[in-house]
Amino acid sequence: MAKKNLILDVDTGIDDAFALLFAARHPEINLLGVTCVDGNTNLKQVVINTLKVLDAAGAGDIPVSKGATRPLIDEPRYAEHIHGSDGLGDLGTPLSTRALDPRPAVELIRDLIEASSEPVTLVPLGPLTNIALFLRAFPETAAKLERIVLMGGSASSGNATPAAEFNVWHDPEAAAIVFSSGVPITMYGLDVFMEPRVNAAQAAALVAEGNTCSSFAGRLIEHFIKQVGHEVTLGDYGAVASAIKPELSTYETFKVVVDTTFGPGRGQTLCDRRAWKDDGDATHVNAPAVKVAMQVDVPAMINLWLETISGK
Ligand code: RIB
Ligand code: CA
């Protein structure tokens, strides 16, 4: 089977780490590069965490670039209550000796797409600041993208606020630029994000495996469970799985508008679920249609991740 060319944009936190470990190890994925964005924690820490995770995955020489240090308009607002003060479960793993690619994120994304003779899928797993800047700086290259499969948004309710999912809420203007770009988009949002979960027994089994990747993954899960007190979602990983195995999710197509007003709905992804008829409101009429994941094959998603991480 031909490998899928992916570029991941991450705000490495714990579930970004689950996604990176998987993307670096799965045989059907050609991980072209990784870009870092301010999100779960500050950009400096996201870079440190991302390089550590690639070490744990035993990844080869994959280019990693840093991007935006903060959202386009809002001040940064972090999620360390979930991801730990270092954003990676405070595991105390050693710093990586990997060198950062000198190019800024938007240039690395451009160069990787331009250099690829095969289609490329962009998989943002954090706030969409880097992606918005890339779309505005290099629209001709963006038009060559096969698809953007993003973790973000919600066709129902939020997690950062009652209305908004964290990645979109962190930078609503960036999200509005991405959703209205015309690039084909799959939204892997909160409607499915929490479904694929792992428990303490699975974490212990991964730690007992004894290899670097599985014990790192197992310890991350154990930290996460300690934070939240119950089994934990594989989160961002699901978007990567959806990018290479879309058959593991079921989708509906909605016109999506991002609320960028400064009210209680800021950062909401308004999915128009009405039986569509032209109500004359240009905001909705002109919004591009988005494939929204509404259900996932939970056991298949979990097994795919566990098999890939443990190398079985
Ligand atoms: O709302 C969930 C998203 O916010 C995930 O990407 C998680 O890593 C955080 O960035
Ligand atoms: Ca993330």
TrEMBL record:
Q: Molecular function (GO) terms listed?
A: purine nucleosidase activity
GO CC annotations, alphabetized: cytosol
Where is the Inosine/uridine-preferring nucleoside hydrolase domain positioned along the sequence?
Answer: 6-302
Q: Which InterPro entries did the record assign?
A: Inosine/uridine_hydrolase_dom, IUNH, Ribo_hydro-like
Q: Which GO terms describe its biological process?
A: purine nucleoside catabolic process
Where do the coiled-coil regions begin and end?
none
* Alphabetically ordered keywords of this record: Glycosidase, Hydrolase
Q: What is the name of this protein?
A: Unannotated protein
Q: Which organism is it from?
A: freshwater metagenome
Q: What is the lineage of its organism?
A: unclassified sequences, metagenomes, ecological metagenomes
